[in-house]
Each structure stands twice: as C-alpha cells, then as structure tokens.
Amino acid sequence: MAFANEHITAYAVEATEFPDLARKYRITGVPKTVVNDQIEILGGIPQDEFVRQALATS
Amino acid sequence: MSLLSPADQDKLRESFDEMTGPVRILFFTQTLDCEPCLQARQILDELPPLSDKISIEEVNFILEKEKAAQYGIDRVPALALLGQDANGQPRDTRIRFLGSPSGYEFVSLVQAVLLVGGHDSQLTPDNRALIAAVTTPTTIQVFSTPT
Asked: Is A21 within 8 Å of chain B by CB?
C-alpha cells in the first residue's frame, strides 16, 4: 500500500524487540495492524477487508 | 557460513532473477548496545550475493540522525527500502522494517524487495483504486514476531 501511494508509510515491526511499542499498542497477538494510532486490525484477513478497514478514516 | 540452506538460496536467486529494477536497502544500525543490529547485518548480508539488483547501504544511527529522521527511523535496527523512479533516480518506497528481519519478517522482507524490484503487488483493481484515493498522511504499522 505504501508502494502504491506516496501518502502512505508502512512499518513492519518486530514486536518482541521493542517492548515499548508492544505495550503502547497493546500487542497481545500477532499479526496486529495499527493505522494512524487509531484503527486496529487483528490477525490476517482477506485483502478486500484489510484495505477497507485500514483506510476507513483516510 | 550462510544462514540459508543451499536450496533456499537457489529458490531466492530464482525469484530475484525476475526483478526488473534495483532495490537499495538502507540499513540503520549502531555498533554499541544493539545485539539485534548484528543479527540484522548477518541476515542482510545474505541478499546481495543472490542478486546484483540488491544492495545494502549502512547508515550509522548515532552519527546520521538527520538521515534517520528523514526516513522516519527512531530506533534500530531498521530498514528503509528504496527503488528507482522512471528516470532512474532513487525513489523512497516508504516501506520500513523495524527490528531484525528474522523468521517470518525475513519472508516479508523478501516479498517487499520483490515488489520494489518490479513484481506485481497482487492488489485487486478495486483495492488499487481505494489506495490511490488516499490524500492524507497515513501510517500503517504491522506488528509480528519471528515465529
């Protein structure tokens, strides 16, 4: 998604290496996606759903 | 000694052979107090021998704060993936990896390198349109663990 639009930046974060981030974003299971510190998506979900949920407020 | 088996190296070499453009990985690291940085370096060193289109550029996180800020990197180890635009100039893809790219993150890194190198994104036309319509700064963080 970041590759397709210059307004989007994507971080793949290794949760165990950064406990501060894991705490801040309440990572209790992976994968967990956080968009603009607001939207949370749990687990791996189909592409259509993922894109819609991730961009719900964009 | 390689971290990858000869069979895995062959598979990766085959995938990377299909790349049409170069991929530069900016590797933000520091020498002191960063065990995962060493691990990340070892993993990254596996890639360039498998494709002449992949290069690694090390960036000292302590000495090059400005560059780190430019790429939105506030911790190490971290990677920023750069591709090439139509004029052959470096193009920031805004794809980042925070932490050592081991285990499942390695798979994600390989996929990201292939994408930047010219592979299809597998996005459907509808989703492409939705993504293209975004005009506000959007930050997506995907958290995972190595296993």
From this structure: yes
